Amino acid sequence: MGYTKLSFQLPFSIFTIFLLCSTIPEISAVGYPINVWPKPTTFLWTRPQAILLSPNFTISHTNHPYLTAAVNRYLRQVLTEHHKPLVKPPLNLTSALPLSSLIITITDVTLPLTHGVNESYTLTIPSTGSSNATLSAHTVWGVMRGLETFSQLVYSKPSIVASGLYISDVPLFMHRGVVLDTSRNYYPVEDLLRLIKAMSMNKLNVFHWHITDSHSFPLVLPSEPELAGKGAYGEGMKYTAEDVKRLVEFGMEYGVRIVPEIDMPAHTGSWAEAYPEIVTCANMFWWPAEVEWADRFASEPGTGQLNPLSPKTYEVVKNVINDVATMFPDTFYHAGADEILPNCWKVDPSIQTFLSKNGTLSQILETFVNSTLPHITSLNRTVVYWEDVLLDSSIKVSPSVLPPENVILHTWNNGPNNTKRVVESGYRVIVSSSDFYYLDCGHGGFLGNDSQYDQPPGTDPGNGGSWCEPFKTWQTIYNYDITYGLNETESKLVLGGEVALWSEQADSTVMDPRIWPRASAMAEALWSGNRDETGKKRYAEATDRLNEWRYRMVTRGIGAEPIQPLWCVKNPGLNCAYGLELPRLEGYTGRICRNWGQQFDEDSFKHKLPQIF
């Protein structure tokens, strides 16, 4: 990942330094003069050109409620968006008749939006409007992906569409998602709707909604109203059944599934507001000064874990599961099971008694899983757990408790190593490695008395970038291969991945720029890959395309952050690149030529070159 090592010897000369500190002549780094994100798997366009889109353009389609909503949305968009690319596509606008219609054909309109549904499509746009454009797919959901592609091929005012092309497209991975935590900070429903809209633009298909945690319980449940009544931050910071219904329907219209996560048995301090008797170590100080890190009560402020030895626990938990399964129709149910801390359970008298009789904490967790997993699967759900339930060093269950046919594990620790461990055990896996896919990393810690930030001024760049530093750049995300180190059989168990925004330091004010366009980078990597036809990583080529795509997302109302200065966007190619492709230098964070213009010390530079090449 990053830079490749040069294989030739460099003469140590001023000319060499000039090469290192200059750019090569501008060339087009984009395969075609118009951008589609994520890049289609097959894009045939022998003579790039464009024709006008008729102001009376129509889309013919089979009647289907979600498809009709999508067609109406995209028809309105292609006729009124009038996107003006920052760099005008060098396309010949022919005098051919305007394109007047797109005809959609679907093999099976009845297939529901579930994991593994066929999202492939083919799109043909003729070189003249005397013929119709055609979009063919096996399912409604494949049509939605094709409509998004078609919309990105339309630009300008009056509307112009790329013509004389053929696209055949299919995702590499079936599961492509975003995790959003709405417990630590609350997000209004409108934010979640906008997130779903942006996900659909990027052909992402799973909104993994981490709804509750120790900090708040914002979901109003009919059978357990007190959980939100006492556990939410306030009356205006709750999600009602009507809110959920609206979100689920909106997701269906955009081809995005919503997978709910009610984390348990850890991360449940907010449950204690309604049921203090079923939560251990609730409202305790998370890491007393006199104890070691391993003996803390929680991984961050906000303590509390459900007590698996209390019968009352299961009365409440099963009500929660039933209500959530009713509100969310998706066949995946994320049950959490991460970061269970030994000391939080050990302070409870009933657990102390159990341990005194030679019981173990892992047995307590197995009791919880054995009491809840069968109930969830009885509701026709596949259960997703965080990897900890199997891989944690202190508290974990036996694989015999987790039947692979009913359980998917979600990795977040230790990069590709834990993914390897999970698939070697025969489990399907979703990847959210914190080393690559955590969007909150690198923004600093949030504890108010963190002494590492109190340091004398000087040349030191400063301490503290959060527990999972550094910041995960779009390049880091784009270049990550989620099947790294796996053989062909193991790779087939990797369902896909999710970028994650944990919300200790995020809310509505920063949601869009924290997620986009970095999530777009994962979207392309999981849709069509991160390598070109020769097998080389294509992040350099992707830069200009992502710049343009980010700009288009902004015009569509998504507050995606910039990835380069506007000058770079308006001067595509390799103007904003290194003069040579540089190898990775451990600890290097700046430009080699930062001090270019000062007196050059050739001997000093010679000494540093072995570290660089």
TrEMBL record:
It is an enzyme of class 3 (hydrolase). Residues 36-153 form the Beta-hexosaminidase eukaryotic type N-terminal domain. Residues 1-29 form the signal peptide. Pfam families: Glyco_hydro_20 (PF00728), Glycohydro_20b2 (PF14845). One of its GO terms (molecular function) is beta-N-acetylhexosaminidase activity. InterPro entries: Beta_hexosaminidase_sua/sub, GH, Glyco_hydro_20_cat, Hex-like_dom2, HEX_eukaryotic_N. The active site is at E339 (proton donor). This is Beta-hexosaminidase.
